[in-house]
Amino acid sequence: MPEVPIALVEATRPYQEYRTASFMGWDASDRSILVSTRFGDVRQVHRVAMPMGARQQLTFENEPVGATIDPTGSMIIVSKDAGGNEFSQLYRWEDGKLVLLTDGESRNGFGGWTEDGELIAFSSTKRTGKLGDLYIMDPRDPSTERLVYEAPGVGWFPGGFSRDKSKLMVIRYVSITNMDVYELDIETGKLEPVRDPAPDEAFGSFAESPDGTVWLTADIGSDIKRLGTLDRESGEFVRQGEFGGWEITGIELSEDGGTLAVVTNEKGSSQLWFYDTATGEERRVDTLPAGLIGSLEFAPWGPLGFTFTSATSPADAYSIDPVSFEVTRWTRSETGGLDPMDNVEAELVEVASFDGEQISGWLYRPDPKKFPGPRPLLISIHGGPESQYRPGFLGSRNYYLNELGVAQFMPNVRGSTGFGKRFVSLDNGPFKREDSVRDIGAFLDKLGDDPAIDADRIGVRGGSYGGYMCYASILAYDEQLVGAECNVAISNFVTFLENTEDYRRDLRRAEYGDERDPEQRAKLEEISPLKRIDEIEDPLFVIQGANDPRVPKSEADQVVERVRAAGEDVWYLVGENEGHGFAKKENSDYYGWAAVMFWQDLLTDAEQ
Fold first, then answer.
1. CA dihedral for 595, 600, 603, 608, sign (positive or negative)
2. How far is C-alpha 473 from the chain's CA centre?
3. Is the separation of the CB atoms in 60 and 27 below 8 Å?
4. Using alpha carbons only, how large is the chain's radius of gyration in Å?
5. Which residues contact 531 (CB under 8 A, 6 or more apart)?
6. 561-597 pLDDT per residue, tens
7. Is-contact 298 253, C-beta < 8 A?
8. Nearest Cα residue to 2 out of 603, 605, 600
């Protein structure tokens, strides 16, 4: 890695000093809220007593933490791993200190509170080191921990308690389009399917009303997730509401069960609705700008809390009155002294791919007055692959747009979520995998013909699965691309599947293929970038977390070794205290400076 000049540090500083504040929940004891934000090196839990009030820091850890507060406001449970290894432990927060609740070694995941805040559910790999068994505990006394279900395989998760505390909803995750729903009797340990497990069905959010009605989102009888009710006895799913025909990404039920908050995905933007559970009336909220909405939670006294972000607003905590639609902003995150309203909005780009499949992505163009003429372009491919790029706040990447004049394009290739279960399944298995790479070719043709884009200066970047796409794209389209920045990237599907952590291996086989099957193994080897990596002649930047449990560091090591053995140069950045992506600001800052240096030489005008 070359040395970072101080001039670059100073030039980028305003763009790297932005913050976000994510809504984490209501504190029923004093009507304050909890938010996740960063004032030091990593995100911590803060309390905000009133709208636009001071953020009081509650946790002071050297690792980023997550948290949940019980429905009565009497206790906070914190989740924390070590160095990004994702083997999270659960803690009870007490006056700034964390009291360990789990064994300190296994992988643990929070699974919900009882309505009275007395018990928590969680999954843990402590019994086998691989399988996520289900436990309950009174967090005031860790000795009350009780194993309630031994998972027969990977992919079993607690989905929340029934209101009377007698049952636990259990989800078996097979793939993004195949999940099963069960109810576990906590006293007897009997597990009963709520629906026939045979069909491939996917489920989203669940909520139980005071009268026992289960509301949920599911793709039953549909290509997208819709709202409905679920009969516990028969398993019948009855669809409720239309919501413009858009896919539903989240629901939240009010304390009295009378109102559902519903969020839909409308061409990448979030739309909030309120649904009267008694009359079926749908009310579309018109008091929020275009942006992304998440982390819904009703306060017992009425308002809905949530996180909102857009191109011109970093993530912040808000609430809304479900009757008047009056919006209250609780936090205003800093943006390094820059005016966020100067940031450009994304435009939707749609194109037919090689086989006629319609694909799309989001293009951010630099200001043509400040940067006239055709501009260089950086394509950023999301991971997952079961994910979707949706236009929100770009953060430090606004530096490329506003100061370097480099356009940004975020594609949603086949296999992305948000377009229905047919589309998300189009890349499944080794024999369809390269179709998503061909989608990048279709985008390159489309964007290369854009008179405002410089077709001779296009680069590609991506992380995780997007990192595989990064390697594959620079190999497939070396004549159209000038360089690649590949982060925590899969380089060989066989070695990836053999070395990823045990608890997720079978889940990834459902997406990529099974390396134990000779035919699939041969195809996985054939399509893996490592097979041809020594053909790369364009500049390459490889980034990796040393503790990554998902895509192990060996995936990056073997690429760097092979490229260097072929006589080509490669930048290699390793975060020694990071996992699947850089979570610590000191590391992400250095990565950001290095990336700017890499792309500035390849994409920008000589005088810049």
1. positive
2. 23
3. no
4. 24
5. 492, 525
6. 999 999 999 999 999 999 999 999 999 999 999 999 9
7. yes
8. 600
What would the pLDDT profile of 272-300 be if each residue is shown by its tens digit? 999 999 999 999 999 999 999 999 999 99
The backbone region for 86, taken as left when phi is positive above 0, alpha when psi lies in -120 to 50, beta otherwise, is left
pLDDT digits (tens, 9 = 90+) for 18-35: 999 999 999 999 999 999
Sheet architecture: strand order including 167-175: 156-161, 167-175, 178-185, 191-193
Q: From the CB of residue 125, how many other CB atoms can be counted at a distance below 10 Å?
A: 22
Q: What is the DSSP letter of 183?
A: E
Whether 123 contacts 134, CB under 8 Å: yes
Q: Looking at the chain, how many residues does it have?
A: 608
State the CB neighbour count (10 A cutoff) for residue 326.
11
- The SS3 of residue 472 is helix
Please state the pTM of the whole predicted model: 0.94
C-alpha distances in angstroms, 173 versus 295, 417, 543? 21, 16, 30
- Model confidence at 605, pLDDT cuts 50, 70, 90, reads low
Q: What CA–CA distance (Å, rounded) separates 377 from 455?
A: 8
- Measured over the CA atoms of residue 220, residue 222, residue 223 and residue 229, the dihedral's sign is negative
Question: Is beta strand 347-352 parallel, antiparallel or unpaired with respect to 327-329?
Answer: unpaired
What is the residue type of 204? G
Return the structure tokens found at 192.
Answer: 């009963």
Respond yes or no on whether the N-terminal peptide bond of residue 385 is cis (omega within 30° of 0). Answer: yes
